[in-house]
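Figure S4 source data
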Amino acid sequence: MTKPPPTTRPVITPSRVVAGVCLVLPFVAMLWVGSYARVTPALLGIPFFYWYQMAWVIVSAGLTSTAYLLVRREERARKGDGR
């Protein structure tokens, strides 16, 4: 009779927590509209409402890349341990 595969529980590590925060932060920033629903300060004539959202596009890309690298590094370390 074959043995069932061992059940593995998900592991919560500091790098996964940081990756999760990196992924949640842009959502929170964009859903909290009251923090950026204004015209001033303008940047090069562009109202704050618009340039704040466009800045978050760049910040979100950086945070997503950081989360990806953290998880990938952890997975590589885990495979190297033989787990």
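Figure S5 source data
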Amino acid sequence: MANRVLAKRQPDLVRLEGRRVVIEVSDLGKSLYWMIRRGRIAPAPVGAVDLRIAGSAKDLCRLALRLDDPDTLFFARRLVLEGETSIGLHFKNILDSVDLDWFAPIRYLPAPLGPRIRQTIDRAIRITQADRRLHDILDRALQP
């Protein structure tokens, strides 16, 4: 899914070719090792990394959902970056330039089904203000 979201940014990822990153979810004791290979995110074997990003599950979720700025989490010592932080900064800039389209999978449905589903969802969100409500619910649920 990440590679699909970042497909348009593939030329920017080339600069990170071969770089290894680990994201550690400190309170769950879980780690995700990945690297950039041929302009795409790929799993990496456990071992030495160029950048370590660590935080609690809540803080990493808040970061992923863009509820908190990475700098805010870092300076509040809720997010740890170790190693070549320039890699993290470059990747952050790539992510900041991406407009997340949660409806992208609908585009793969054949016409007229895909466009009709998208219109129906857009209308329902507009009428119910579900996007704002969901943001508020997630913000409250993921409070530090």
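The chain has a mean pLDDT of 81. The longest helix spans residues 113-128.
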